[in-house]
From TrEMBL:
Keywords: Cytoplasm, Nucleus. InterPro entries: MCRIP. It holds the Pfam family FAM195. This is MCRI2 protein. It comes from the Eukaryota. Belongs to the MCRIP family. It is found in: Cytoplasm, Stress granule; Nucleus. GO terms for cellular component: cytoplasmic stress granule; nucleus.
Length: 103
């Protein structure tokens, strides 16, 4: 059983027609990123990585100067239950939702 080749999946169309979801995806315009956009994203990413490294270094006592993390002295009561969003997790959920909707 382990030596036998994997079976191929075959999908038969109903009445020979493509599903509407696929037609909508094919006609949807794709996002195009310019070289300038990619350079800006790379610059911001690299700059933020530097700031995070410097913050970690200042927390561990490596350097006396560098970025300082802002902490509100008098927090607003309206923001008492505020929970920051994990943007990477949100994007992952959006990506998975698109995959599930297309299948």
């Amino acid at each position: 059983p382990l030596d036998s080749p994997a079976q191929k999946l075959v999908f038969n169309r109903v009445n020979g027609k493509r599903p509407q979801v696929l037609l909508q995806q094919i006609s949807a315009p794709e996002e195009c990123y310019t070289l300038a956009h990619e350079e800006n994203v790379r610059f911001i990413y690299e700059a933020w990585q530097q700031v995070e490294q410097q913050l970690d270094g200042s927390r561990s006592g490596e350097s006396a100067c560098g970025p300082v993390q802002y902490v509100e002295k008098n927090p607003s009561p309206g923001l008492q239950n505020f929970v920051p969003i994990d943007l990477e997790e949100w994007w992952a959920q959006q990506f998975l939702a698109k995959i599930e909707n297309c299948s």
